[in-house]
Fold this protein.
Amino acid sequence: MTTVLEPAAMKDIAVAIDLDDPRQELLFAQGLKLVLGSEGVMTVVHASTGAPGAPNWLAMPTVREVLSRWGVLEPGSTYVDFERLHVRVCPVTVTGDDPATALRTELGKRGPDLLVVGNQDRSWLERLLFGSIGEDIVRGTGMPSLFIGENARPLVDVSTGSADIARILIPLTPELAHQPLMDVLHRFLVTMDVGRILVTFLYCGSRDDLPWLSLPVRPDWVYTTDIRRGPVVDAILACAIEREVDLIAMATRGHDSPLDTVFGSRTERVIHRASVPVLVVPLPHKEESP
């Protein structure tokens, strides 16, 4: 373990929403909390097929409404009061026959520090037949993403704006380089202004084979290791419940085998089954042997 310098906060946050999804305000709140901590820009992106009828952005609460509810702004505050927070929120509508492709193209051009995206809980057959827009975007752009599953409790309370992140689980696997994940997680926690946390590294295998990581040395961050046996996904989900974690952070390299295409990568299976959000950091694919 070595000391790591304090990283820059995440200042460019994208939130992919569906204006017809009742969870849109939940996703909006996660992104807004992040830009409040960094005085950054939140781009709220809605994808449309271009069918008649303008997107109903009025279904979304205004930023000032949310911040007044959170106590950040006084009731009746003006736009000038909001400007003093040095935060920008930009709604964007993209159109295309394929919403996933339209979103992926738009986000690829913008290159945000983090994407906040929801995820529906589907069976492996539904995922094979219909896919997942959020997972497709992450694979297509390679950007770090915070997945809020259909059954996952959010990190940020929509009513109060308070963030609950005290315990984090990081699964480690020998075939992946996890330092990029740790670096992104560090930036994420700095942006959220997290205080005391307990980070648990989960490894299925021998303690002697644990990957080496360069970790932030902070008096309020505590690290521990949990060594287990058995199927990795089951171990991750069991450990998350037993340790009552608030967030799972995972590195992923997408689909590496035909079975992954059918049943999903480990990360995808965790996203669909976890009761907490999952921070995902895509890694480049392994170079194939000539």
Summary: The mean pLDDT is 81.
